[in-house]
């Protein structure tokens, strides 16, 4: 059994990355970045456990990819680390950032080889440029650029973080106890992904695979008298609407399920349960926009959608053009990539009896190609 646990921190909002896709969810080949990093560490077979720290929303989806230990992060890097340390029982803990995604294996081995030399082992880079502090030059030979991962004695790191002081990394926390911090050689390849420009400095990352992801959705709602009817986000002239917890837009509900199906995110009932009063009577356009935002943040682009509305009544021919542009705007794609068909059931079944409507939807997604942003 290994005496070291690995913690990978990735609960940040990626605000400096400035893309709809969070940096931990950009794809390299067919893996999101967080999984690529975790799997690279896992294949070394040197850790007792790998803990991934992220937001609760991300973790729900991450669990569909792998069975690592997942921990909900806090409001800061330090708070996230404290949360993760509750699940560490080994004598040593290595802490790294998911954003530091091209770490050479020999750098990790140097950390492990030096673990008995101090309370915290830290990879560093020498500064090669002239440095000034408050307008005066300083000795660059006395400075170091600090990297992660860092290897610490678990008990001492837990003790150090009990302080009210905010530390920027593990080494500064350990140093506050007066314990020994040991520097080893880092590696320029272990560059941290912070902004879009950093992607050019990470040659280990591959372009996303060019594959098509298909999802299918279907939804049915019965009619309800004296209620407004909405389909594809627009109001339909009718004396009745749809019986539903929300506004009942059966078309957008089917589309949401198709989108979620394409990326393996479950179904509309899981994201927006009908026993949650916050969704009572809600405009389904709000739910679709939220779904699209989630999908994009998780590294996907919407290619096209195709929908079939099966209704004996009302007649929808005059609405189809507006439906197309409305859905296209909600998905932030061009109208030619949205196709909406309407048909009857030839007076068969509950639809033919004018008791309700069924909608079928197909959605196609692809991985967001971050290479286009470089």
How would you describe this protein?
- The protein has two domains: 4-201, Spore Coat Polysaccharide Biosynthesis Protein SpsA, Chain A (Alpha-Beta Complex); 213-373, 2-C-methyl-D-erythritol 2,4-cyclodiphosphate synthase (60s Ribosomal Protein L30, Chain: A, 2-Layer Sandwich).
- The protein has eleven helices and 19 strands.
- It has helices at residues 33-42, 56-62, 77-85, 105-113, 154-160, 170-175, 250-263, 268-271, 284-297, 320-331, 349-352, and strands at 4-9, 27-28, 31-32, 49-54, 69-72, 92-97, 120-126, 131-133, 136-138, 144-146, 150-153, 181-185, 213-225, 229-231, 234-236, 240-242, 300-310, 338-343, 356-367.
- A hairpin with a 2-residue loop joins strand 8 and strand 9 (136-138).
- It is elongated.
- The relative contact order is 0.13.
Briefly, what is this?
With 374 residues, this protein is an alpha/beta fold. Helices cover 26% and strands 27% of the residues.
What integer is the average pLDDT?
A: 96
**Structural class, please?**
alpha/beta
Radius of gyration: 26 Å
Q: What is the molecular shape? A: elongated
The third-level CATH topology of the largest domain is: Spore Coat Polysaccharide Biosynthesis Protein SpsA, Chain A
Distance between the termini: 43 Å
Strand % is 25-35%
- Level-1 CATH class name of the largest domain: Alpha Beta
The biggest beta sheet reads: 8 strands, mixed
User: Helicity range of the residues?
Assistant: 25-40%
Number of domains: 2
CATH architecture of the largest domain: Alpha-Beta Complex
CATH superfamily of the largest domain: Spore Coat Polysaccharide Biosynthesis Protein SpsA, Chain A
């Amino acid at each position: 059994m290994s005496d070291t646990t690995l913690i990978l921190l990735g609960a940040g909002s990626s605000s400096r990355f400035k893309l709809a896709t969070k940096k931990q969810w950009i794809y390299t080949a067919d893996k999101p970045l967080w999984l690529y990093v975790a799997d690279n560490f896992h294949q070394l077979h040197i850790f007792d456990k790998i803990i991934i720290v992220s937001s609760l929303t991300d973790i729900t989806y991450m669990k569909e990819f792998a069975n690592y230990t997942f921990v909900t992060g806090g409001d800061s890097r330090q708070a996230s680390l404290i949360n993760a340390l509750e699940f560490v029982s080994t004598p040593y803990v290595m802490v790294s950032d998911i954003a530091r995604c091209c770490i050479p294996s020999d750098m990790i081995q140097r950390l492990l080889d030096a673990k008995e030399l101090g309370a915290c082992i830290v990879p560093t880079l020498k500064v090669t440029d002239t440095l000034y502090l408050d307008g005066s030059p300083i000795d660059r030979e006395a400075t170091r650029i600090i990297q992660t991962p860092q290897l610490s004695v678990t008990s001492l790191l837990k003790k150090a973080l009990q302080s009210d002081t905010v530390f920027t990394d593990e080494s500064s926390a350990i140093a506050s106890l007066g314990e020994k911090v040991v520097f080893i050689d880092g590696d320029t390849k272990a560059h941290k992904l912070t902004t879009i420009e950093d992607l050019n400095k990470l040659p280990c990352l591959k372009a996303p695979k060019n594959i098509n992801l298909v999802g299918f959705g279907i939804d049915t709602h019965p009619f309800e008298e004296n209620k407004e009817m909405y389909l594809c986000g627009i109001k339909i002239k009718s004396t009745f609407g749809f019986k539903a917890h929300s506004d009942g837009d059966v078309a957008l509900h089917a589309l949401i399920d198709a989108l979620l199906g394409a990326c393996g995110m479950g179904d509309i009932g899981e994201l927006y349960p009908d026993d949650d009063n916050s969704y009572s009577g809600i405009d389904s356009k709000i739910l679709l926009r939220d779904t699209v935002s989630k999908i994009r943040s998780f590294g996907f682009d919407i290619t096209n959608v195709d929908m079939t509305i099966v209704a004996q009544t009302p007649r929808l021919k005059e609405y189809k053009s507006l439906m197309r542009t409305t859905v296209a705007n909600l998905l932030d794609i061009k109208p030619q990539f949205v196709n909406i068909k309407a048909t009857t059931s030839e007076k068969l079944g509950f639809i033919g009896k004018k008791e309700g409507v069924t909608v079928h939807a197909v959605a196609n997604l692809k991985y967001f190609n971050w290479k286009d942003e470089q």
